[in-house]
Amino acid sequence: MPSKKLPSYLTRLKEIRTNLLADVEKNFKISQSEPPEPVADITDDAARIYSNQLMTNLGEQDWEKLKQVDEALDKIRDGSYGNCANCDQPIPEARLDVVPFAKFCVECLSKIENEPHSSTNSPQNTIPGEMV
Ligand SMILES: [Zn+2]
After folding, report:
1. What's the 107 CA to ligand 1 centre distance in angstroms?
2. Among 29-43, 73-87, 101-115, which stretch is predicted with the lowest mean pLDDT?
3. How far does the centroid of ligand 1 lie from the alpha carbon of residue 92, in Å?
4. Less CB within 10 Å around the terminal CB: N or C of the chain?
């Protein structure tokens, strides 16, 4: 990673971090300030639970992103910023310009995203020649 562009990534990461923290705090305050109203009927309750879950999910996504931003900031400090966490190849600057907290190069990311989740579909059940 050429150090020339590092300060601009650092600035952007800090900006993203500040915005995320503000969002997280806002969501937290909204969920905290919701009064524990007595539940009138089941429909109201379901709607309330749904909106709470939505809020929690948003929060989790924000925390996840915040974690990635923090990791990127750590990498800037230890000098490994801009390298793919999987193959250790430099992540193209064009990608870092779009996602300054990118952890993987595009190739590894698409591999990870396309990885089949085969935990429920175990291949041991269909070994040929075992059924005699
Ligand atoms: Zn990679």
Report:
1. 6
2. 29-43
3. 10
4. C
User: Mean of the pLDDT values across residues 71-93?
Assistant: 94
3-state percent breakdown (helix, strand, coil) of the chain, nearest 5:
65, 0, 35
Q: Retrieve residue 116's tokens.
A: 């089949």
Tokens of 2: 């050429």
Q: What is the 98 CA–ligand 1 centroid distance (Å)? A: 17
Q: What is the DSSP letter of 31?
A: H
Distance 31 CA to ligand 1 centre (A): 38
Whose CA is closest to 69, among 33, 40, 100, 36?
100
- pTM, 2 dp: 0.64
Q: How far is the CA of 58 from the centre of ligand 1 (A)?
A: 28
Q: Tens of pLDDT along 3-31?
A: 689 999 999 999 999 999 888 788 777 77
Percent pLDDT > 70 in the chain is 70
